[in-house]
Protein backbone atom coordinates (compact mmCIF):
# COMPACT_ATOMS: atom_id res chain seq x y z
CA UNK A 1 0.00 0.00 0.00
CA UNK A 2 1.30 3.46 -0.93
CA UNK A 3 0.75 5.94 1.92
CA UNK A 4 0.35 9.68 1.37
CA UNK A 5 2.56 11.33 3.99
CA UNK A 6 2.32 14.99 4.95
CA UNK A 7 5.26 16.57 6.79
CA UNK A 8 4.25 17.87 10.20
CA UNK A 9 7.73 18.71 11.56
CA UNK A 10 10.68 18.94 9.19
CA UNK A 11 14.10 17.38 9.61
CA UNK A 12 15.64 20.86 10.12
CA UNK A 13 13.09 21.89 12.75
CA UNK A 14 13.77 18.63 14.61
CA UNK A 15 17.54 19.18 14.50
CA UNK A 16 17.21 22.72 15.88
CA UNK A 17 14.95 21.60 18.74
CA UNK A 18 17.15 18.60 19.61
CA UNK A 19 20.20 20.91 19.78
CA UNK A 20 18.27 23.16 22.21
CA UNK A 21 17.31 20.18 24.37
CA UNK A 22 20.91 18.94 24.32
CA UNK A 23 22.15 22.33 25.55
CA UNK A 24 19.52 22.43 28.30
CA UNK A 25 20.30 18.88 29.46
CA UNK A 26 24.06 19.59 29.36
CA UNK A 27 23.50 22.57 31.69
CA UNK A 28 21.19 20.65 34.03
CA UNK A 29 23.60 17.72 34.40
CA UNK A 30 26.86 19.72 34.53
CA UNK A 31 29.41 17.95 36.69
CA UNK A 32 27.50 14.66 36.59
CA UNK A 33 27.23 11.64 34.33
CA UNK A 34 24.05 10.82 32.47
CA UNK A 35 22.62 7.35 31.94
CA UNK A 36 20.20 7.47 29.01
CA UNK A 37 17.61 4.73 28.65
CA UNK A 38 15.59 4.34 25.52
CA UNK A 39 12.53 2.22 25.01
CA UNK A 40 12.86 0.00 21.95
CA UNK A 41 12.20 0.51 19.22
CA UNK A 42 10.61 3.95 18.96
CA UNK A 43 12.94 5.89 21.25
CA UNK A 44 16.18 4.87 19.57
CA UNK A 45 16.35 7.45 16.77
CA UNK A 46 15.72 10.34 19.12
CA UNK A 47 18.13 9.04 21.75
CA UNK A 48 21.06 8.69 19.37
CA UNK A 49 20.44 12.20 17.95
CA UNK A 50 20.04 13.71 21.41
CA UNK A 51 23.13 11.98 22.80
CA UNK A 52 25.24 13.50 20.01
CA UNK A 53 24.41 17.05 21.11
CA UNK A 54 25.13 16.57 24.81
CA UNK A 55 28.35 18.21 25.92
CA UNK A 56 31.35 15.88 26.34
CA UNK A 57 31.63 17.36 29.82
CA UNK A 58 28.58 15.28 30.71
CA UNK A 59 29.69 11.71 29.98
CA UNK A 60 26.81 9.67 28.60
CA UNK A 61 26.13 5.96 28.94
CA UNK A 62 23.30 4.18 27.14
CA UNK A 63 21.00 1.26 27.81
CA UNK A 64 17.87 -0.11 26.21
CA UNK A 65 14.74 -1.84 27.31
CA UNK A 66 11.74 -3.26 25.57
CA UNK A 67 8.30 -3.31 27.12
CA UNK A 68 4.84 -4.23 26.01
CA UNK A 69 1.72 -2.85 27.58
CA UNK A 70 -1.43 -4.86 27.62
CA UNK A 71 -4.30 -2.83 26.32
CA UNK A 72 -7.60 -3.08 24.56
CA UNK A 73 -7.67 -1.60 21.09
CA UNK A 74 -5.67 1.57 20.55
CA UNK A 75 -5.23 2.66 24.16
CA UNK A 76 -2.55 1.13 26.31
CA UNK A 77 -3.51 -0.17 29.74
CA UNK A 78 -0.11 0.71 31.09
CA UNK A 79 0.30 -2.72 32.66
CA UNK A 80 3.89 -3.03 31.60
CA UNK A 81 5.57 -6.32 30.85
CA UNK A 82 9.33 -6.23 30.39
CA UNK A 83 10.33 -8.03 27.21
CA UNK A 84 13.97 -7.04 27.33
CA UNK A 85 15.36 -5.66 30.57
CA UNK A 86 18.25 -3.24 30.95
CA UNK A 87 21.76 -4.71 30.71
CA UNK A 88 23.11 -2.67 33.61
CA UNK A 89 22.03 -1.70 37.09
CA UNK A 90 20.74 1.87 37.47
CA UNK A 91 21.51 2.10 41.19
CA UNK A 92 22.99 5.51 42.09
CA UNK A 93 22.84 6.68 38.47
CA UNK A 94 21.21 9.82 37.04
CA UNK A 95 18.75 8.26 34.64
CA UNK A 96 17.09 9.98 31.70
CA UNK A 97 14.36 7.98 29.99
CA UNK A 98 14.16 8.98 26.33
CA UNK A 99 10.90 8.35 24.50
CA UNK A 100 9.57 9.05 21.04
CA UNK A 101 6.08 10.13 22.09
CA UNK A 102 3.90 10.29 25.16
CA UNK A 103 0.25 9.71 24.54
CA UNK A 104 -1.91 8.49 27.46
CA UNK A 105 1.24 8.41 29.59
CA UNK A 106 0.26 5.06 31.10
CA UNK A 107 3.25 3.10 29.88
CA UNK A 108 5.68 5.70 31.18
CA UNK A 109 4.07 6.21 34.57
CA UNK A 110 4.32 2.46 35.26
CA UNK A 111 7.86 2.31 33.93
CA UNK A 112 9.02 5.21 36.10
CA UNK A 113 7.53 3.52 39.16
CA UNK A 114 9.23 0.25 38.24
CA UNK A 115 12.64 1.82 37.59
CA UNK A 116 12.32 4.08 40.63
CA UNK A 117 12.32 0.96 42.83
CA UNK A 118 15.84 0.17 41.59
CA UNK A 119 17.30 3.13 43.53
CA UNK A 120 18.64 5.47 40.85
CA UNK A 121 20.02 8.82 42.13
CA UNK A 122 17.48 10.58 39.95
CA UNK A 123 15.09 9.75 37.16
CA UNK A 124 13.85 12.18 34.52
CA UNK A 125 11.85 11.86 31.37
CA UNK A 126 12.51 13.34 27.93
CA UNK A 127 10.22 12.93 24.95
CA UNK A 128 10.48 14.16 21.39
CA UNK A 129 6.71 14.54 21.05
CA UNK A 130 3.95 15.03 23.57
CA UNK A 131 0.19 14.79 23.05
CA UNK A 132 -1.12 16.69 26.10
CA UNK A 133 -4.77 16.29 25.11
CA UNK A 134 -4.47 12.51 25.31
CA UNK A 135 -3.02 12.31 28.81
CA UNK A 136 -4.86 9.94 31.15
CA UNK A 137 -2.39 9.76 33.97
CA UNK A 138 -0.25 12.20 35.86
CA UNK A 139 3.28 11.79 34.53
CA UNK A 140 5.88 14.51 34.92
CA UNK A 141 7.72 15.11 31.66
CA UNK A 142 10.94 17.05 32.23
CA UNK A 143 11.97 17.73 28.62
CA UNK A 144 9.59 17.98 25.66
CA UNK A 145 10.61 18.46 22.03
CA UNK A 146 7.22 19.44 20.65
CA UNK A 147 3.63 19.42 21.88
CA UNK A 148 1.36 18.20 19.10
CA UNK A 149 -2.36 17.83 18.69
CA UNK A 150 -4.05 14.46 18.66
CA UNK A 151 -2.72 13.17 15.33
CA UNK A 152 -1.22 9.78 14.51
CA UNK A 153 2.35 10.47 13.49
CA UNK A 154 5.20 8.46 11.99
CA UNK A 155 8.94 8.88 11.52
CA UNK A 156 11.86 9.53 13.90
CA UNK A 157 11.25 6.10 15.42
CA UNK A 158 7.47 6.10 15.26
CA UNK A 159 5.75 3.49 13.16
CA UNK A 160 2.57 2.38 11.55
CA UNK A 161 2.57 -1.43 11.47
CA UNK A 162 6.35 -1.32 12.14
CA UNK A 163 7.04 0.77 9.02
CA UNK A 164 8.34 4.32 8.49
CA UNK A 165 10.40 4.49 11.70
CA UNK A 166 13.34 5.56 9.53
CA UNK A 167 11.78 8.79 8.19
CA UNK A 168 14.04 11.69 9.26
CA UNK A 169 11.00 13.96 9.75
CA UNK A 170 7.64 13.67 11.53
CA UNK A 171 4.82 12.88 9.16
CA UNK A 172 1.08 12.35 9.25
CA UNK A 173 -0.58 9.74 7.11
CA UNK A 174 -3.32 11.39 5.06
CA UNK A 175 -6.55 9.49 4.41
P1 LIG B 1 1.05 5.65 26.09
O1 LIG B 1 1.62 7.01 26.44
O2 LIG B 1 1.21 4.64 27.20
O3 LIG B 1 -0.39 5.77 25.66
O4 LIG B 1 1.79 5.03 24.84
C1 LIG B 1 2.78 5.69 24.16
C2 LIG B 1 3.28 4.80 23.05
O5 LIG B 1 2.27 4.61 22.06
C3 LIG B 1 4.45 5.44 22.32
O6 LIG B 1 5.69 5.09 22.89
C4 LIG B 1 4.29 4.90 20.92
O7 LIG B 1 4.93 3.65 20.80
C5 LIG B 1 2.80 4.71 20.75
N1 LIG B 1 2.19 5.87 20.07
C6 LIG B 1 1.38 6.81 20.62
N2 LIG B 1 0.99 7.73 19.71
C7 LIG B 1 1.59 7.38 18.55
C8 LIG B 1 1.60 7.97 17.22
O8 LIG B 1 0.99 9.00 16.91
N3 LIG B 1 2.35 7.31 16.30
C9 LIG B 1 3.06 6.18 16.57
N4 LIG B 1 3.08 5.61 17.79
C10 LIG B 1 2.35 6.20 18.77
MG1 LIG C 1 7.23 3.76 22.25
Polypeptide structure, described:
This protein has 175 residues and is of the alpha/beta class. It has three helices and nine strands; from the N terminus they run E-H-E-H-E-E-E-H-E-E-E-E. It has helices spanning 11-28, 44-52, 106-116, and strands at 4-9, 34-39, 60-72, 75-84, 94-102, 122-130, 143-147, 153-154, 170-174. A six-stranded mixed beta sheet has the order 4-3-2-5-6-7, sandwiched between helices. It has a three-stranded antiparallel beta sheet with strand order 1-9-8. The chain is globular, with a radius of gyration of 16 Å. The chain binds inosinic acid and magnesium ion.
Taking the alpha carbons of the first and last residues, their distance comes to 12 Å
Counting DSSP H or I runs of 4 or more residues, the number of helices is 3
Q: How many strands?
A: 9
Strand content: 35-45%
Structural class: alpha/beta
Helix/strand order, N-terminal first: EHEHEEEHEEEE
Mean pLDDT: 93
Determine Rg (CA atoms, Å): 16 Å
Shape estimate? globular
Helix fraction, binned, reads 10-25%
Spatial order of the strands forming the largest sheet: 4-3-2-5-6-7
Described by strand count, sense and barrel closure, the largest sheet is: 6 strands, mixed
Q: List the bound ligands.
A: inosinic acid, magnesium ion
- Low-confidence regions: none
Amino acid sequence: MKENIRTLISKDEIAVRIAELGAEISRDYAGRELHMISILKGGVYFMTDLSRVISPEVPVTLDFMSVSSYGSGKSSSGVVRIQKDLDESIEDKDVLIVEDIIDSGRTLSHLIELLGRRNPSSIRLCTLLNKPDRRETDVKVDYIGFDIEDLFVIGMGMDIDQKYRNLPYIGVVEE
